[in-house]
Amino acid sequence: MRLAELRRTTSFRLAMLFLLLFGTAALLLCGLLYWQTKDFLAEREDKTLMTELAAFDGLDASELRELIMAHAVMDPRLQRPFDLFGPAGERVVGSPVGPPEFQVLAQPANHPFTFALPHNGRPVYFRGLIRHLPDGQYLLVAEDLTSTRDFGNLLLECCLWGGLATVLLGLTGAAIAGVDALRRIEGVTRAIQRISRGDMSGRLPTRGDSGDLDRLAQEINFMLAEIERLMLEVKGVCDNVAHDLRTPLTRLLAGLERARRRAGSADDYAAAVDEGIQEIHGLLKTFAAVLRIAEVESGARRAGFADLDLSEIGADVVEFYVPIAEQKGVALSQACDAAIVMQGDPSLLFEAIGNLVDNALKFTPPGGRVEVRTFANVEGRGIVVSDNGPGIPADQREAVLRRFYRTEQSRSTPGSGLGLALVAGVAGLHGMTIAITDANPGCRIALSGAPAGKAEIDFMLARSGS
């Protein structure tokens, strides 16, 4: 794992950005804390000096000297030295740590100042305050700044060490986040490489921690699964198209060759042409069905949706197929549990329900029955077509919704295997699900959607009131 790759990861860059932002904020906070603390301590020392200096007010010269000498005895460590200087700046009495003559004479009265005196080879800093006495002398009150400066240095050192620790922890966190992101990217890259080489079963790795990358990987995996399904479906469609078109094309070719060899009159040629035309019509019907399914699945017809009553469409379908059912000796009936008002395309729904009824009539034996019923309950609403024919095996109920798939492998029954695929496309366009179950005996196919909303209920009440 190269450092250049780590620096290019989004996680590392975001971590460094946040480190810069929070580091700058911490630096400003520490600087403000240091300067405020320093100013607070200096102000407190100045107030203390002013208070001590006020204690000398009203004392005569002898009392002042006695008090200064007593203080010098009580302060052997010279933490708070008091000094009395003559008019020329010479020390009269007090602690021998005062500033030189020129500093004493140069300082304004009642204005704190800082001065340094050498001690053991290093400077010792004091904060002092001078008062001009009426007799021309100078009174100095001072305080050792060693502890205050030590505290300030300690505070500054803590801020510096805290800043260094923040930088190190931030860099460590950024490196860990970058390495983790780089490992995930490597796993995703390898998975994509396998997929691009043709392994459509490959999926992006996930951790199951519901993170943002996991959610993205799950959506991509869902997309890959859908692409794999569509590719398998396209492959199956191509295989089924080749299989289903080979038979009519073979019959067409054989009929033309037979007519060329055996036909001896114009009537024979006309019969051969009629058979060829019939085969071509069947092929065109198959292609039209394929194009119809593609149009439905594209969603282009959704723009023409309008309010409709599904029970009325079911009644129209039953009325259309009644003559065919009577010709086959099958009882076709309709039952309406409720008026199903929904948004949809009437012609597409008529075609889808008609395909279901046509399939039911095709496989139901004479004397059987086919029922079309609309339903509405708390779980959903829709339409169901049931019969008492042979039914659809449970292991083929998903396969029959694919294009050109037929449960009858011999393909002796007329049809192209596109009817239920069209029904599934129309159902998906209308937000409905298709469910195939047993009717015991027979098959039951239901198209169902969500329960009716308030607007649709109002529309149904208005229709019933009218």
Written description of the protein model:
It is a single chain. The chain is α+β, with helices and mostly antiparallel strands and 466 residues long. It has three domains: 1-199, Beta-Lactamase (2-Layer Sandwich), CATH 3.30.450; 212-296, Orthogonal Bundle (Helix Hairpins); 302-465, Heat Shock Protein 90. 57% of the residues lie in helices and 16% in strands. The strands form three sheets. The chain has a five-stranded antiparallel sheet with strand order 2-1-5-4-3. It has a five-stranded mixed sheet with strand order 7-9-10-12-11. α9 (346-363) packs antiparallel against α10. The two termini are 76 Å apart. The mean pLDDT is 79.
Q: What's the arrangement of secondary structure elements?
A:
Layout: H1 3-8, H2 10-54, H3 61-74, E1 82-85, E2 91-94, H4 101-106, E3 113-119, E4 122-132, E5 138-144, H5 146-196, H6 212-262, H7 266-298, E6 306-309, H8 310-328, E7 331-336, E8 341-344, H9 346-363, E9 369-376, E10 381-387, H10 419-429, E11 433-438, E12 443-449, H11 454-465
Parallel strand pairs: 7-9
Antiparallel strand pairs: 1-2, 1-5, 3-4, 4-5, 6-8, 9-10, 10-12, 11-12
Helix pairs in contact: 2-5, 6-7, 7-10, 8-9, 9-10
Summarize the structure.
This protein is 57% helix and 16% strand. It is of the alpha+beta class and 466 residues long.
Q: What is the helix/strand order?
A: HHHEEHEEEHHHEHEEHEEHEEH
Tell me the CATH architecture of the largest domain.
2-Layer Sandwich
User: How many separate domains?
Assistant: 3
Which stretches of 5+ consecutive residues score pLDDT under 50?
none
Number of separate helices: 11
Spatial gap, N to C terminus: 76 Å
Q: What structural class is derived from the secondary structure elements?
A: alpha+beta
Shape designation = rod-shaped
The largest sheet, given as strand count, sense and whether it forms a barrel, is:
5 strands, antiparallel
Integer average pLDDT: 79
Helix content: 55-70%
DSSP, total strands:
12
CATH C-level class of the largest domain is Alpha Beta
Tell me the radius of gyration. Answer: 49 Å
The proportion of strand residues reads: 15-25%
Strand order in space, largest sheet? 2-1-5-4-3
CATH topology of the largest domain: Beta-Lactamase
